[in-house]
Amino acid sequence: MSDNQFSASSALTTDINLKQSSPLAAAVGTSPVLAFTSNSSNYTPGSSAQAIASSLTITGGSTINGARVSITSDFNSAQDTLAITGSIGSLTANYDSAKGILTISGAGTAADYQNALRQVTYSNSNTTLTNATRNIQFSLGELIANPGNGNYYKYVSNSVSYQAAKTDVESSNQEFLGIKGYLATITSDTEQAWAQQQIKGVAWLGGSDAESEGQWKWIVGGVEKDTQFSTLGVAVSGKYVNWHSGEPNGTTNQNALVMSDGTLSSIPLGQWADVDDGFNAGYLIEYEASGLQLSGNITLTLNNQVSKDIYWRDYTSGDNSRWQVIGSTDNTGKFSVKLGDKTALFEKEVDLNWQMELVSDFDKDGVQDLFWYNAKTGEASVWKMKDTATGLGLDKKTTIYQVGDSANWKVQGLADFNNDGVEDILWRNYATGENGVWLMNQETSNGGKLSNDQGIFFQSRDTNWAMAGVADLDNNGSQEIVWRNSVTGENNIWSMQHGGVSNTVPFGTISPAKTSTITSFTDSNWNIVGVGDFTGDGKKDLIWNNSSTGENEIWQMKYEVTGISLDKRFTIEKANSPKWSVAGVSDFNGDGITDVAWRNYDSGESELWIIKNATSIPVLDQKVALYEILDPKWKIEDIV
Predict the structure, then answer these.
(1) Is domain 151-288 annotated with CATH 3.90.230.10?
(2) Which of 312, 414, 583, 639 could form a cystine bridge with 599, CB 3.0-4.6 A?
């Protein structure tokens, strides 16, 4: 700062030699240790308040004068609440609902604070939250740890000279849980951002150029002590500085560093200036907590209510139903399901030749529509559906085409082959080996229709080959078709491409751009029963089931420029009986890993297998029974 802005205290007539201080130990005495048995937990939004860290421990140390619990990520003041349940003795607790900070105050032992922190609860009033997280930080003492470096900071408002501040900081008066502090040394923009939130006035920092004019060093601190960070206001060797424009100005005797609180001669909040050593200011103390366990974090997962729809058809009565299956995971990791309020029967189709083949939101109105096929007449129809107060309702039926050779053309699956955002319909003729795609159009009035009236045919194939799945396996925007030859045991994958759009070919062509041969499975009892991300790597895997033995395998695939190949094989639990068959795959608990739905068409039982990733290995975590439909003629048609 310039001389006419700040003058030395009248009592200060000579420069203070600031370089003579001895190094400070980061910690003295005994500090308490805070520990968790687990750093993660689960919470069901909308449920009652739940203890966050009921097995937290605090050991060692002497008197503790405070603790804080704070929500440090994605805090929503209208939804998130921290509280205390039960008695905490003579300690007191106060929750700042605007900041998401629960402060516990009072002198107590490690046991006292352990009891109090174990009773901290979290609740969230938003019942629709899925896939959300909150980071909850527990911190001993009246200070909050900086998430960036783990250190603690304290602003002392006493307005004193630089030397008086430095002397007080190095005394036992300012120890924090057995740690001696030092005037703060700011070495990054994230630390700067944290530090300037702590100050309530102009603050001394631990920098000085008293040893050599213009050569600024951190003269106190832990690892930063004696480190030069600036020469005449320019950062040295990539070191962090936050000087105000024109600072430091090199004026004689202005050898000490301050951080502005926004009131210092119009210098913005957080920026630095050099001032006379005798200027009076508050000071910011930093406590280096490296190697200590004074704080810890728990990640709270709020993705515990995941809703999936299961579509059913009874091929004896013609009844149809949609189940809203709502899954929840409690704080112990136990998964359970219940049926939602809109679980109900919907429009009956008494002609049993009509098969509910596919479920997709063809018209993009937010409600799933149904694609039906009559294998006797060859008619194909889309049911445009609507949500009602009690469930799913039929809005409109539209016949979109009539297929010739209806007995042999079979619907194989859904995939967006032309990248228009609408899923298309894949077909195969198991008599001729022909293959084709119906490109679907987003038709809002009818719930979807064919873009063209013939479909697009692509390369035929020996009828021993069956389509076992279709999906964008490697998330590159193009679709793959998985094939299995039940006679030879061969398996391969066609990577499809859409192109060739022109005036004469307005809908383009679809063809296999690449064929990848994967490992054979000669036992014809083994079949691919699902495609999903069972390993949590963001790419699709294959799940196999042996219809004779009930054995199951997951194949993790490797995706390379040259093609797709088998990377790893994992055996998962065997089905209780070969009478159990896979009815569909989906992520039922919202953890990003695909789970498996099973149906026993003899007993009418159905259950979910929740898969988890155990050190990159997919394993069965839990089996969860679905409500029984004892009549085995009810068939699961799709899960979305």
Answers:
(1) no
(2) 583
